Amino acid sequence: MTIKDSGNAASGGSATPSPNNIGQGLGQSSGAGSSNPKRTHTIMSAEDAAAGKRSFWAEMELTGNIRNISPQLFDLTHLTHLYVNDNSLTKVPSEIGKLVNLQVLDASNNKLRSLPAEVGDLIRLRELLLANNYLRTLPFEMGRLFNLQLLGIKGNPLPQEFSSLHAEVNGTSKLLTFLLDSLPVPTVEPPPRAWLPLATPTRSKPACIFTVLCYNVLCDKYATRQMYGYCPTWALDWMYRRKAILQELRHYSADIISLQEVETDQFYNFFLPELQQDGYAGIFAAKSRAKTMSESDRKFVDGCAIFYRTAKFNLIKEHLVEFNQLAMANAEGSDDMLNRVMTKDNIGLAALLETRMEAWDNGVPHGYSPPLLVCTAHIHWDPEFCDVKLVQTMMLMHELRLIADESSTGRPNASSAGKSPTDKVHLLLCGDFNSLPESGVIEFLNTSRISAKHPDFKDLGYKSCLQRISYNSDRTTEYTHAFRLSTAYSAEVMPFTNYTFDFKGIIDYIFYQKPNMTPLGLLGPLDPQWLVENKVVGAPHPSIPSDHFPLLVELEMTAGSGSGSSNSGNQQSSSTLSTTSVSTTSSSSTSSRR
Hints:
Domain Disease resistance R13L4/SHOC-2-like LRR: 72-152
Structural class: alpha+beta
Catalytic activity: Exonucleolytic cleavage of poly(A) to 5'-AMP
Radius of gyration: 29 Å
Family: Belongs to the CCR4/nocturin family.
Pfam families: Exo_endo_phos, LRR_14
InterPro entries: CCR4/nocturin_mRNA_transcr, Endo/exonu/phosph_ase_sf, Endo/exonuclease/phosphatase, Leu-rich_rpt, Leu-rich_rpt_typical-subtyp, LRR_dom_sf, LRR_R13L4/SHOC2-like
Helix content: 10-25%
């Protein structure tokens, strides 16, 4: 047996098993290095050993005409490379699936007649060498090895279908796709997500209780095997996924639905007609690139959609926020605004809604009741452009303030509203912000302000542009927006809203305006144990139609303006909610920080 030693002084090699117990068979364990020039090893000097240096080894080679492998080997779960080639192995034990960190497995030139299904659990494998064995088939579970780049199967009496696929250009990928698509998937529906109560409704004054759902549905053109290699082709197909998405929307039956990544054609020919049957009306806007495309290409461009239950709300006006156009209009003095922000075609979409009389409990509000401003947005995705994400969000909040100011013009009894935008509308902001909770984007939304020197700006030349759109434009050290917002979900409640193999985290949010909106409850996360038990390494999945999970919140909205109302809900303790109400007339007096 040869153990490759990286020469690293880190601890971790203390669990080294006896070489005589690992490989069992004819011949002795060999201490000589492999003849393969790609594999070299070093041996710790006597001086280093005497000095107490400890090595960490993650690669192992077993040689010596070995016929069986001891179960002890599979306790070495830290292994990344395992070489058992050129032996006399007739089988690979099912315990191989415990070596979840393996990146290279070489079992070529043995006498293997079959492979266990558990080989499909080695999802980090990049090289799997099985040449010159007696394999007559491959387990369909091997299709789950979506990181595999090199598969050696020559010299095995495999079916012609396997050999032919493997011989094609990109043969490894094609063979894995065939195996995964052929793998029977048991129908195991995820368990219901728990409903988490947060507060009790107000009984002393008029209030509207409604639910809002936010969901990035993953549009068809992004749902590819290149992006989601762990998902079967048939489960990525839009016709399959859209049935499950619609089933989710109908199951949760939210009063307001905010969707991202909705293709133009799917909005008009699927979502809108289907949801109209359930009592919804909807609005939609495609990303800005659609304006430059032909009619046939435009229908595949994705965008944002808002649906609202017509029994509770009437549409007053819809507003499109195009970040590239705003960047162009505000680019004076900033090449970065032109070169970095204007080139991204993300959008926001807002619906100004009037609450119908029938939707109020405890009587009908007297006098002026601010309309509900519902906004959904899909912010730029690239982590390298954190400055663009933040600038887009600041432009969005500026536009929402202008919409709020415009909303009171010409409306009956609107003169009784205060001067602050928070008095003119009740803002509900939902979307895929592609930003983690600790990012500048979420800090800005949650606290109503952000330092002009925040690292997310990358010291780029945005200052003069951003001062012009800041709510308190006279401040030179920070930028502000006009609303008091809080996010309904926190990391303690929902550890991830986006769930892929490479990334799991919170990037989707529902923000509500304080103090006139109070969360009464929200939909909890999917049971993580179910994900583990069913080996769901990422979404989409045959039982999960998108790479995002929908967020659902029940909100209570009171009628009063922000300057004169108090939060009278019987609030339970929650890290996501503010437990006190602070009257405010502008964001400059807001000191709420999360």
